[in-house]
Amino acid sequence: MWRERKERNKKRRSLAMSTIQMATRSKQGIHRGTGKRQKSPRKCGESIMLHKGVPSQQSSYHTFSSEVEIEMFQKRLLAWYNKCKRDLPWRKLATAETDCDRRAYAVWVSEIMLQQTQVASVINYYNRWMQKWPTLQDLAGASLEEVNELWAGLGYYSRGKRLQEGAHKIVSEMAGHMPRTAEDLQKLLPGVGKYTAGAIASIAFGQVTGVVDGNVTRVLCRVRAIGADPTNSSVTDQFWALSHALVDPAHPGDFNQAMMELGATVCTPRAPLCTECPVRQHCRAHHRVSGYLPL
Question: Fewer CB atoms inside 10 Å of the end CB: C or N, the chain?
């Protein structure tokens, strides 16, 4: 009898471990702010469908079906972010700057620098950049040689080149005004993809749009226990749909930064700090293992 009970508990623990491993396989690609390339996870048997109208027996399990739960998730995450967020120079500028174009420019520079580069490595480069070229007009007047000289050591020089080209385009073709929406930012600025456009639009202009990067993907995979391959384009679309549904309409910029901050500092690729997570009450991966494994 005792041996049978022990064997059953062993099987249950094994099942729980499999569940959390599926949820944590989202640590793929280049994670924003880590500068590390992760191995792509294996594909699951079925993709998780998140779009309304797409048939799936598991769709309700992998989404936030209750508006009350969404509101509580937003409230808890934002309260944690306001208390625990890292003190970063681009956040100060985004908060203090009253001019919309200068605010968006400050966010844009930070987001481009943070692509494939660790936060700690970016800070000094960012401060030097903003001191040398505090406005779009200043950067538009800079030469590529000057940009490359300041960028030296940060890597991926095409990022600096695209920033300079974008600033020149904004000054010469758009009267010095940054595009105001994620759609226009992505369409009109060189080197600005869907994530970067959403980050700029939500942080600088308050557009209610979600963002999806490596950190956000990992958080969503764990919170909703999603094991589908996040490198699959259809699954990526579903993560975007979920992020749009989850973003706080009153504080979209802070909410998106909070999601990324949570993934970077608490819901990390390895050894996540679940006991410090402000939204663990909503985390299906946590619930599925907490009865068997210490968290």
Answer: N
